[in-house]
Amino acid sequence: MATARSFRVRPFLCAQNPERLSQEPSLARGRPGETGAPASTPCVTSGETLRGVSRARPTGPAIPSPLDAIKTVPAQTATGESYVLKNHAYLITAYTNRPQLEQLLSLLDDERNDVYLQTDSKGSLAVDGLSLRRSRLIILPPFPMYWGGYSVIQAELNLLRAASGSRYHYYHLLTGTDLPLVTQGVVHARLDDSEAQYVDFAPEYQAIAHWKAAYFHLLVETRLYTRNTPFRIAGHGIVKAQSILGIDRSRKESETYFHGSTYFSITHRLVEYVLAHEPWIRRTFRYTLACDEVFLQTLIMRSSYRSEVASRDSGNATNLRYIDWRRRDKNSPYTFRMADYEELVEASRHHLFARKFNTTVDAAIVDTIVRRIKNNGGL
Prior knowledge:
Largest sheet: 7 strands, mixed
Order of helices and strands: EHHEEHEEHEEHHHHEHHHEHEH
Low-confidence stretches: 10-81
Shape: globular
Number of strands: 10
Structural class: alpha/beta
Radius of gyration: 21 Å
Number of domains: 1
Number of helices: 13
Strand order of the largest sheet: 2-1-5-4-3-6-8
Distance between the termini: 28 Å
C-alpha cells in the first residue's frame, strides 16, 4: 500500500548546510529514498514543519523570492548529459477552501506527477496534514499574493524554481479553483510526444497589455486596492497622470507587450529560459497591474519559443484550459455549475483542464467531476 507523503521546502537548508545535498539521499532529485538520483532543487524534508523558524514576510515586489537561497544542481545522466523526465509537475496557487483543494489533489495523485503548492500567507488555507499517496506533494513557505500585483508573478516563479531541478517534461500552472476534465492517463498520453508550449495569446487585448505594463501602478500591492474603491480610483489617477505627462517605460527598450491567460502548460526548456530571465521579468513588470497575464506571453514573443506555441487550429485551446469569460463576473471568469455539465463534457474533448469552480457556489458539479473521473475514467 502506498504511503501518504508531503514535503516542505526549506529555503534556509542549503545556505546553512550545502553538504547535506550529497549526504542525504532524501534531499536528492527524484522520489524519497532514491539514492541514485542527482541532487537538485528543492531541498525538502519529509513531514517537518517550519514552526519556530523566523521568516521575513515580503512587503512588496522588490522582496527576493523565498527560494533564492536554494542552490540548484543540474540533473545529469551517467554520461554527464542533461535529461528530462517524462513526469509532470503541477504548480498550484491556493488561498482558501481546503476541501475543494483536496478534491483537486485527488485527481492529480499519480506516480507520474509531483505537485507543488504555494499558499497565500494572507489567506485562510491550512495545509497541516495535507498529503498524497502516489505523488510527491511539496509545500512551499506561505507567500503574500496581492491580486494584480507583481507578487502573483513572483509566486509563479517560486513554483517554477522549486520544481525545475527535477526537470519535468511539462509544468502545469493551476489554482485551487481548477479541475482536470480528464484522467491523468489521458493528460500524459496527449502530451507524451509533444514539445509544444501551451500558452494562451489574446491579440485583441494588446492595448490593455500596454496599459497594464507600460505605466507604474504604484498602489496595487496592498489590501486596499481590491477593497477600497476610492483607493483604486486614486491608483488609476496616477496612471492617467503618467499618460498625460508622457511617462511610458516601454519606450526605453521599444518594448511591445502581449496578453493572454495566466495559466499554462510548458516544457522544461521554456521553464529554464523563464528562470534565466527572472531579473528582466522583475525589472520589467514590477509595479504593473495584472501582468501575470502579460509577462510570459511577452517573454515568449521576444524569443525563438514563439514558434513552439500551440496553435488554435491543432484541436486544442492554446493553453489546454476551458475558461468561460463570456459570462464573466467582473474581473473573474464564470464559475461553473451543475447545469453546465454537458458543456464541460464537450469541452473535455479538446481541453485537459477547466476553471473555475467553487464548492460554496455549487458543490455538485465538483463532486460529479471528481466521481466520474475516478470511477468512470472520464466525464
